């Protein structure tokens, strides 16, 4: 585990990735259930996980923020990823996108709401931007509930990689 803690909540810790974490990321996205609402809607290969890991290191270096490794505070168990990235299709507008993925065996424990709310506060406290977006698949009602619970508002429909989605925003 990286020694640098990015953010702590009552039950969770966000930390930077280690260079050898690609297999952990692949396992997070290893089933159709955990990828059905992600771009591509297919389980991730190790190569894809390695590419994403490299991109997260690059984002951290360039923007000072990325998607981080999420661990439970009580036992250090890996349960997912969460953080911000620049929305690639919107890079000219400079919009940051909140994203999170939780291991399937940890669903239903309120981790997504806990980390998303803490990340929103952290994002604004650090002055990354005056607003950010998040998007969900139209059928991902659980994620839509999370975004609304933390105070995000529906902005518009969005097409990402040819797939329809719903875009939410938060401003401060």
Strand fraction: 25-35%
The topology string of helices and strands comes to EEHHHEEEHEHEE
CATH superfamily: Gcn5-related N-acetyltransferase (GNAT)
- Helical percentage: 25-40%
Spatial extent as radius of gyration: 15 Å
Query: Globular, elongated, flat, extended or rod-shaped: what is the shape?
Result: globular
Number of strands: 8
CATH architect. name: 3-Layer(aba) Sandwich
Kindly list the characteristics that best describe this protein.
single chain; 172 residues; alpha+beta; Aminopeptidase; 8-stranded mixed sheet; 5 helices; 31% strand
Kindly summarize this structure in a few lines:
With 172 residues, the chain is α+β, with helices and mostly antiparallel strands.
Characterization of this structure:
The protein is of the alpha+beta class and 172 residues long. The protein has one domain: 3-Layer(aba) Sandwich (Aminopeptidase), CATH 3.40.630. Helix content is 31%, strand content 31%. The protein is built from 5 helices and 8 strands; from the N terminus they run ββαααβββαβαββ. It has helices spanning 22-28, 32-35, 46-63, 111-125, 141-149, and strands at residues 5-8, 12-15, 67-72, 78-86, 96-102, 131-136, 153-160, 163-171. It has an 8-stranded mixed beta sheet, sandwiched between helices. Helix 1 crosses helix 3 (46-63) and helix 4 (111-125) crosses helix 5. It is globular, with a radius of gyration of 15 Å. It starts with a strand and ends with a strand. The model has no long low-confidence stretch (mean pLDDT 90). GO terms for molecular function: acyltransferase activity, transferring groups other than amino-acyl groups. Keywords: Transferase. Residues 23-172 form the N-acetyltransferase domain. It holds the Pfam family Acetyltransf_3. It comes from Rhizobium paranaense.
């Amino acid at each position: 585990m990286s020694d640098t803690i990015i953010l702590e909540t009552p039950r969770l810790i966000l930390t930077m990735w280690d260079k050898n974490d690609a297999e952990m990321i692949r396992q997070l996205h290893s089933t159709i259930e955990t990828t059905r609402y992600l771009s591509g809607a297919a389980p991730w290969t190790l190569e894809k996980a390695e590419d994403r890991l490299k991109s997260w290191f690059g984002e951290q270096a360039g923007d000072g923020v990325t998607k981080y490794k999420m661990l439970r505070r009580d036992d250090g168990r890996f349960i997912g990823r969460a953080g911000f990235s620049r929305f690639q299709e919107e890079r000219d507008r400079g919009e940051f996108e909140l994203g999170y993925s939780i291991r399937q065996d940890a669903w239903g424990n309120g981790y997504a709401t806990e980390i998303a709310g803490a990340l929103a506060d952290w994002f604004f406290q650090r002055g990354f931007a005056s607003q950010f977006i998040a998007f969900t698949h139209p059928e991902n009602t659980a994620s839509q509930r999370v975004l609304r619970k933390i105070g995000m508002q529906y902005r518009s429909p969005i097409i990402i990689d040819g797939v329809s989605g719903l875009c939410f925003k938060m401003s401060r």
